[in-house]
Amino acid sequence: MRVFKRKSHDVGMTRAEALKFAPVRSTRIQESHLESGEIILSYPVDIKPWVDRIAKRFGVKESKPIEKKLQLDEFGTVVWEQINGERSVRQIIQWFAKKYQLHTKEAEVSVTRFLRELGKRGLIGLK
Fold this sequence. Notes:
Layout: H1 15-19, E1 23-25, E2 30-33, E3 39-45, H2 49-57, E4 66-71, H3 74-82, H4 89-100, H5 104-120, E5 124-126
Antiparallel strand pairs: 1-5, 2-3, 3-4
Helix pairs in contact: 4-5
């Protein structure tokens, strides 16, 4: 009798399929532009219900929404401005590589890492 089951290594989608998706900005984000041209993104952070219950037990009356800010550097700003819900990840990578005269693979690593971080924070989704 087997105690441990083997995990299936279902990849889900290929790299080529993932690059066809178009990133879409969250509607909960507020942008502010700095004089330097960089962008600051302000977004609310959802509090887990169990954290809220613990806070109430310790006497915190009403937990107001927490807002976080993320300041984008030059590269982040130009990629953020390319996100419009129409351009695919592949198109953004190609544009980025051409603008900064990078090899496509280097641009792919940079852009996908940035988009992944935005996705983890709930700032973008893919369609």
